[in-house]
Every structure is written in structure tokens, then in C-alpha cells.
Predict the 3D structure of the following.
Amino acid sequence: MISTNYPLYSVVSLGNGQVAIAGGGGASKTGVPNALEIHRLSLSEGRVQSEQLACIDTGSSAVMNCSARAGRTAVACGMDENCAIVSISSSVAGSPAKGTTTRERRTKKSSNQSESITLSIDTKKQSDFHEKYALQKCVRFNASGDMIATGGADGLIRVWAYPKLKLLQTMDSVHTDDVDDLDFHPTQPLIVSVSCDKTSYVWKVTDSKQVTQLKFTKAAIDVPYKFRSCRFLPSLPGSSSEDVTLVTTHSPVSFYRPPVSYVCLWQASGDCSSWTERKWLSVGKEPVSCLSCLASQTGRFIGIGTMMGSVQILSDSLQTLRRVRSVHEMYVTSVALTVLPSAKEDGSHLPVLVSVSDRTCTATQIKTGSGQIILLAVILLLVIALFIVWMTRVL
């Protein structure tokens, strides 16, 4: 769907059918750029099409991880040991503000108007302080967009105030290795984190205290597993009940002995002081590399990418909706679930899993409509064939 001249490491949904993709060649002077781009996705004759809306050169630092603020106003980016805020502004038929480093595309807004999207790096602060190889590895906005959490090579979790990146809290983490992933609870002052040390914890944002440790008991005793990624899956929009589910992925520690990988759903107690495994699913022998969750009017969905370049879309009950092997030639570095407007009169939206790997970005749709009819027809033919065989034997 999209090809770039630099490796891609991150993709995030901005809403309204727009995504941000980012990456780069780093500080090496090989001519490979470092950049963040915004694209608008749309459906045309059943295929996902892309149009670039804006792009910003991020200087000597590649963007390794991203999180989008609600309302498409900013993207928090991990650039080496720093957290940077890329602000997004738009205007109708106007010129971009002076002093910003951007390359932009005008998009048709109406018959006589065009929208200009401008990107600018407004704030940058060091967020990881490992003494040898400082590196921010993950970043997340909270639901209200006033806080950002970061984690990285020093094993600590830091919470910052948006937009000035004033440090609010530092979790005195018991992680003994890199923080690989983290996420804010959508309604409670909680953060979940997973680490390269194979552990996962839930933290309280207000006082930076540890609430509980998650323990994945499904793993076989003789096979070591690690937490790979984590996301809170919010309730459906407009739902009166709070049905927040914690989703984690688990991969074997050793690649030389490849048992299956898992996706696990966790249920919280009433006060969120403890979390228990509710359901898990084996997703094959390919180690999971990344995770995304989405709650929309269409439903709740889970998307994963693997180290072997495959992607999979699951329902919130862990039913496999779509699995495509070897979408990419290399491991999937990031995935993002988003929704695209459909051509149906009811105004429904179609969930799409956007994935990035190396220099490519692609979109995977859930098979609907004619695909389901074909499947039912095949099942019906099999039933008829079995009935004919049975009648032949009886007679």
C-alpha cells in the first residue's frame, strides 16, 4: 500500500481514516532519511488506498515508537533517548506557519476549499537515562491526552505532563531490564508495563506504587515465556457498563525451540487491585512482535503482528477473524487498528489492521460479505456430499 525510502518502525491511528507512519536510518550518514508521515486511507473498489497528507524530517534521529493524542493534535515520538512532541495543525486554504520544518500536501475539503496539514516538533526531552545505551522503547498518551508515559532501556517508567513534558511521576520499577511496552487504563489511574525481564506489573499513576504483578500460568513449566506487549481494550463507545479488558501477548524466550505464542485476556477485580487470566488463545508458532486494540461502533478488535511477517485480527472473544501469513518479508515492527468509512448507507465503518515492516506499510481487511457467502456455500456443499455418501451406504 505504501513504500518509503527508509525503514519503518511505528504506525499509529489518528482517527478519521488517517494514520501516522514513522522511522528512519538514524544518525548514520548513509543518506537514509528520518521522517514521520501522515496518510489518509480510503476504500476504492474494495481495496485500501493511501494519500500522503504531510511529512516532517526528524533530523538525525529515527522515530522508533509513537503514540497519538486523541483528536489528531499531536504524536509523541521516541527518538533515541528522547521523547519528542510532533504537533499537528491544520488550516483551510492558508499558508503554514513560519519557522516549521514540514513538507505538506493539500487535500480537497470541499468544492472550493483545501486543507493544509502542518507538522512541527515543539518539545523534546530526555526520557531514558541508561548509563550505556539510553533508549526510549515505548510511549503512550492517556485517554484524556494530558499525560504521557514512557519506558526504555533503564527499566523505569516515567509519566509526563503534556505538552511541556514536565515530569510528574517516576515508577521505581522492579523491572531489571528494558521496558518493552506500556499502556494507560482508559478510565482508571493505572498503567500496565511489560519488560524484557519476562515480567509485567500494574502501577498506580497517582503515587507511582505497584498495584500487582501479572503471572501468566498457561505457559508450560519447562518452556520459558515472556510478556511481549500489552494494551487495555476499552468498552464499546456509548456502552453504559465498563467492560475494560487487559490484553497481553506472550512469546517463547528461545527461538530455537518454538512452542506456540499466546494472546491472553485479563479481568480485573472491582477495585482493579488484582487481575486474573480470563481466556487465552494459541496464535501459532510465530513469535508475536506487536499488538493493537480497537473499540469502535463496529465492535472490539485485537490485532497482532509476528516476527515472521504475518498479521492476525481477533475479536474481543479471541475468535480469529482474519489471518494472513507473510504479509511482509521481514518481522512486523508495529501494527495499528483503525476504521475506514464504508460505502454502505448505514454509515458503518470497516476495521483495518495497518502494519509496517522494513520499508513497506500495508492494510489487512476483515473478510466480509461475499467471502462469508462463499464460506457458507462450501460448508453446504460438504454437508450435501456427506449426506449423499451416507445415503449410498444405507441403500
